Amino acid sequence: MDVRTLCLAVLSKGEATGYEIKKAFEEGPFAHFQRASFGSIYPALSRLLAEGLVEAHAMEQDGRPDKKMYRLTAQGQATFHAALTVDPEPDQFRSDLLFLLFFACHLPPARAATLLDAATASYRGHVARVSGIKAEREAVSNATGQPLDPGREFVAGFGITLYQAAADYLDANRDALLADLQGHAEAAE
Amino acid sequence: MDVRTLCLAVLSKGEATGYEIKKAFEEGPFAHFQRASFGSIYPALSRLLAEGLVEAHAMEQDGRPDKKMYRLTAQGQATFHAALTVDPEPDQFRSDLLFLLFFACHLPPARAATLLDAATASYRGHVARVSGIKAEREAVSNATGQPLDPGREFVAGFGITLYQAAADYLDANRDALLADLQGHAEAAE
DNA sequence: TAATGCATGTAATCGGTTACATGATTCA
DNA sequence: TGAATCATGTAACCGATTACATGCATTA
Questions:
Q1: The pTM of the whole model exceeds 0.85
Q2: Topology of A3-83 in CATH?
Q3: Tens-of-pLDDT digits for all 189 residues of chain B?
Q4: What is the SS3 assignment for chain A?
Q5: For chain A, what are the domain ranges?
Q6: Distance from B155 to chain A by nearest Cα, in Å?
Q7: Is the CB of A14 under 7 A from strand D?
């Protein structure tokens, strides 16, 4: 997904500034499966504005420079919906960690252990974060009676399950790998 | 991981042609967590050759044009090992499918179903393929007594577990999502 | 006082994809 | 005859990252 479409997607959930769009990919609902940087968001927004897919109005703030609030136009809505009809390319879990671990034999065992532990912690962090905001949404929904968004909850659940499985796998196989590496190193002596 | 490093990585497992390197990312051991295209592999190989990190010798073939077999030099080995000491950036399951499903409410339920089923099939295909080659390696190892590569098996196991978990999640939540969507659509009428 | 968060933007650069170009062989 | 596999490469283009540039407010 290009950043252009990603911006339309965030804005389809409500108006936002460039800065807030960035946050949606850092801590917000898209955090676990998409990413975008300032360097791509701001130019995308400018282009979208020039094309009439979004409209912007400046909001004055005391002291701070104005912030620009962006909102989808009808044309932007339509373009976004059209983007949803495109077939997705197959998913792939592109992972630098797996790349390194593939060559575990060339790694000092201590480094392998560090890598493994850091990744486990990171995955568990993901699970905790996404679970937290999902639970919060459920609490709000229960309290107010507002229905949950099925797509959003489905995607959050997917993320939780996947990162949980990843963390569990690392946990379950960590010691065996490290032992293998030790044996491998000794055999090479 | 840039394609340059990826090429060094494949060549560290034995000499190969550009074409074979491509295959390593399509069906080979790297298939489920890295990717590279011809348009990036061939230029990377040229550059690597110019820098002395790989050496090449032409292999004549009857009828067909020569193929170039590439092999790591000592310098290439060293560069590759250095690349293994770099800290990996955090993993992210970048997924177009999840992006679309996040907006499931804007999708016709039939399309959501198609998307879900295609993804499940694709994940299961991954699992079958990686399990197959893993089992084959284990059989060979049992027959010949050659030890397995711990890193390779660990990574293969990770891929199997993850894609299995993904497929299972889709299976387990498919019908509920579709029902929600139906209810949502009716409520909107 | 230093770091962090809020807030927006530009420019250089880079890496990679897509499409194109070529050409033989084998299999359906 | 047409498609797929083997086999290598180039060029245009694009999209995105990184770093840079600015500046105020708040918090430690």
A1: yes
A2: Arc Repressor Mutant, subunit A (1.10.10)
A3: 999 999 999 999 999 999 999 999 998 899 989 999 999 999 999 999 999 999 999 987 766 667 999 999 999 999 999 999 999 988 989 999 999 999 999 999 999 999 999 999 999 999 999 999 999 999 999 999 999 999 999 999 999 999 999 999 999 999 999 999 988 777 766
A4: CCHHHHHHHHHCCCCECHHHHHHHHHCCCCCCCCCCCHHHHHHHHHHHHHCCCEEEEEECCCCCCCEEEEEECHHHHHHHHHHCCCCCCCCCCCCHHHHHHHCHHHCCHHHHHHHHHHHHHHHHHHHHHHHHHHHHHHHHHHHHCCCCCHHHHHHHHHHHHHHHHHHHHHHHHHHHHHHHHHHHHHHHC
A5: 3-83, 96-188
A6: 6
A7: no
